[in-house]
Structure formats: structure tokens, C-alpha cells
Amino acid sequence: MSDSITKARHRSARRPSTPLTDLAHAASEQMGTAGRRTAVVASSGLMITMMAIPSNAATQASGTLASVDTAALTASARAVLNTSPVVSAPADLEFTVDAPVVKAEKPAPVVVVETPVAASRTAERAEAATSTDTAAAVSTAPAAAVPQSVSGNAVLEVAARLVGVPYVSGGTTPAGFDCSGFTSYVYAQLGVSLPRTSSAQRYAGTVVSRAEAQPGDLMWSPGHIAIYAGGNQMIDAPRPGKTVQFRTIWQSNPVFIRIG
After folding, report:
1. Which end of the chain is more exposed for a tag (fewer CB within 10 A), N or C?
2. Of all helices (H) and strands (E), which one includes residue 219?
């Protein structure tokens, strides 16, 4: 009779199992499942094909978001930039700006029309005050009788009919005369128009010397005008308070003016 010897079987030593070990093992299995490829297993003469689980299915199974392929996006962006037109400007490019042309027009000249203003008797008397012998000589000059030169002289005949008319400042009629109003009225009766003021009548005719002067010529001194009566006499409207009269020439150097 033979003895039967039964040998005991011994398991190989295993690594100790801890919670961390179980977690690592589970992770390894999931990664293997997600990444394994088609496997071919031979069993009982049949071919069984095992398809690998898609990566997105594994992602959905694990509950995490799918990763983004940044390399593909970068390549697409570069393709768009390469096909876009390139705009470049030359180094000597000049820019121009169309500005409206502004034209300045010269304004039309302003024409000023001066209206002559008749000088007042006050201004004439102020001018007469510049003469050193004006006021005193007029007040002391004696009245003269009507000279013989009046006969046949048209100017003096008109003037003689006005003897005794009172002096009136600004007067131009037989109701009253100032000096230039008297001379202009006398000449107007003969159809001759004289300027209104004594200063203007000074330039109304031709200046002659005293030796060449004739009865009926005008006699001018600063601020006063009279009619020459021949010899050393004249007729005029002297000043306020006096009347038209023949009298002796009192001016030292009068200007004789011939009209016409």
C-alpha cells in the first residue's frame, strides 16, 4: 500500500491592501478601459472582436468636460491671417487735404459827402479878433457922406439905397444885414451870386492891388467884408448896434477883390 502525500498549496505573497491602494487600482482600470484598443480573443474556434470605448464616452462616464484642442484653433487662426490682404504704405507717401478757398473781397470805398456849413457871425468875429486893429478901428472910424463915385456905378448905386439898414447877425435882407449878407445881397441885385461868408467871398474873384482897385470892388480883411467906394472910403454893415453906411477905410492892409 502506497502512502499518499498531499502537498499543501501556498499562495504567493501579496502586497498589503490599504484604502490608497484600492483608489490607485480603480484609477488604473479606468484608464486602461478608456485607452485599450481592439482585442482579439480566440475561444471555441470563434473570433470575438472587442471595440475600444470612445474617449468621449469615457469622459461622459467619468462626468468631466471634454478637452479643447488649442493646436487646431491656432492653426485655423494662422490660416485666416495668411489669407487676409496686407495693406502697406510707401515711406514717401504724401497726404493732401482739400480745403475750401477763402476769398477776401475789398469793401467798396465809403464816399463821404461834405455839406458846406455856413459860418456863423460868431466865427467870423472870432477870426476878426486876430487882427490887432479890428475892434478899436471900427468903433472910431467916422461916417462919410455919399461919395461922388456912386453916380454911374451900378454896385454903389444899389449899396447906397441900403444905407441905414441895421446890422443883424446872419441877416441877408433889407430887414437886417451882417457884413457878408450885405455884399452878397448887393451883387445879387445885379445877377452875380457870391458865397455866403466873408472868408469864402475872399476867393470869389481876382485880387488886385490898392492902386488898381476900382469903386465897386470888394474889400476883405480877416473876419470882415465891405465894398470899396473909391478914394479912402467904403460902404459896409459894420457890427451890432450900427447900420449900413459909407465910412473911411480903417483897415491897414485890406485885400481888394474884383468880381467878374
Report:
1. N
2. strand 218-221
